[in-house]
Design brief:
The protein is 43% helix and 22% strand. It contains 9 helices and 11 strands. Strands 3, 4, 5, 6, 9, 10 and 11 form a 7-stranded mixed β-sheet that branches. The chain has a two-stranded antiparallel sheet with strand order 1-2. The protein is globular and about 70 Å long.
Length: 306
C-alpha cells in the first residue's frame, strides 16, 4: 500500500496554488530547497512524476492533480475531525480567526462579534482586515478560520478546498457632489453618468466592480482619479472632482457634501460571502460565528428592503 504523508501533500497543494517553489516556501515558512526535497520525496513515495518545468514556474502533472483531488477529501475530513475534537474539548468555547475586507468589518463583523460577546462570552473571535482576494490566501494557509470576501473575487463554488456561504447582496449607489446638476434628477440611471469623470481604485476588486457595472449599461467609465479608501474617494467627490459607485455597506463613511443616489432602475450589486476550509463549518465555534454573521446580514437585508 502507498504511504501517504499529509505534510508533503500540503506542500504539493500550496505549490498548486502559488505556482512557484519560492512562493510556496514563503507561504509555508520553509526554504525553497526544503520544499523541493519534500516534493521529490513524495514523488518517490508515490512512484509518479509530480512536476514539470513550465518557464520559470512549475506545473503539476496529471498524476499530481489526481493525487490532489483525493487529498482534498482527506483535508476536508481532517478539518471535520479538528472541529469535532474542538467541540468535544471546548464545547462552545474556542478561538475563531476572521479575515474580512474593509467595509465588511464595521458592517458585518463588528455587530456579529458584539452579539457573540453577549450570547457566547466564552468564544474568542479575532478579526483581521484583509483585501477580498487576500482573505482566501489567509484561509488556505491556515492563518484565519473564516474569510469574508466578494463572490466575484473568490474561488468558484466547485473549489474543493472551501465551503462558501452566501451572506448578502450589497447594493451599489452613486455618490455625486451636493451641487451636481444630476444630484436631484428623477429616475437617475447609471448610463446618465457616462460622460462624468469617475473615481475608483487603480486596480483590484473595486476597479473591476466599477468597470463591470458601467460596462453592463453600455459605457466605459473615464477614470479621472484613483483611490483605494472610501474616505479619500468621498472627499474627492465632495470636492467636485468626480462621481463614484459606493457600496451601501460603506454608509458610515458618507459626507455632508456628498449626495448618494439609489440607482433603482439599474441597481448594481456586489455579493458578499463567507468561506471556511471545507469541513470546518461543522465545528461548534465556527458555526456560532457563521450564525451570527447570517443574522447581521439578514437584518441588513430587511433594512435595505424596507
Amino acid at each position: 500500500m502507498t504511504e501517504w504523508d499529509i505534510r508533503k501533500l500540503q506542500i504539493l497543494r500550496t505549490l498548486n496554488e502559488r505556482g512557484t517553489v519560492t512562493a510556496t516556501a514563503e507561504a509555508l515558512r520553509m526554504t525553497p530547497s526544503a520544499v523541493s526535497q519534500q516534493l521529490s520525496n513524495l514523488a518517490r513515495q508515490l512512484g509518479v512524476p509530480l512536476l514539470v518545468a513550465h518557464g520559470r514556474r512549475v506545473r503539476l502533472t496529471d498524476a499530481a492533480q489526481l493525487v490532489l483531488r483525493h487529498a482534498e477529501a482527506v483535508f476536508a475530513q481532517l478539518e471535520r475531525a479538528d472541529a469535532e475534537l474542538a467541540g468535544y474539548l471546548q464545547g462552545e468555547a474556542g478561538e475563531v480567526r476572521v479575515g474580512a475586507f474593509s467595509t465588511a468589518v464595521p458592517a458585518l463583523v463588528v455587530p456579529a462579534v458584539a452579539a457573540l460577546r453577549l450570547s457566547s462570552p466564552e468564544l474568542d473571535v479575532r478579526v483581521r482586515e484583509a483585501e477580498a482576494a487576500e482573505a482566501y490566501t489567509l484561509l488556505s494557509g491556515g492563518e484565519v478560520d473564516l474569510a469574508l470576501s466578494l463572490a466575484a473575487h473568490a474561488p468558484t463554488a466547485r473549489d474543493p478546498r472551501f465551503t462558501r456561504i452566501p451572506l448578502l447582496a450589497d447594493p451599489l449607489d452613486v455618490a455625486l457632489p451636493a451641487g451636481h446638476p444630476l444630484a436631484a434628477a428623477e429616475g437617475l440611471r447609471l448610463a446618465d453618468l457616462s460622460g462624468e469623470p469617475w473615481i475608483f481604485g487603480g486596480s483590484g476588486p473595486w476597479s473591476e466592480i466599477t468597470m463591470a457595472a458601467c460596462e453592463a449599461v453600455g459605457f466605459v467609465p473615464e477614470q479621472a482619479h484613483s483611490a483605494a479608501g472610501w474616505t479619500a474617494i468621498l472627499a474627492m467627490v465632495e470636492a467636485g472632482m468626480g462621481v463614484a459607485l459606493v457600496p451601501r455597506m460603506a454608509a458610515a463613511e458618507r459626507r455632508t457634501g456628498v449626495v448618494t443616489r439609489v440607482l433603482s432602475a439599474d441597481q448594481p450589486q456586489r455579493h458578499v460571502i463567507a468561506a471556511v476550509r471545507r469541513g470546518a463549518e461543522e465545528g461548534a465555534a465556527v458555526g456560532r460565528v457563521l450564525d451570527a454573521l447570517r443574522e447581521v446580514a439578514a437584518v441588513r437585508r430587511n433594512v435595505q428592503n424596507s
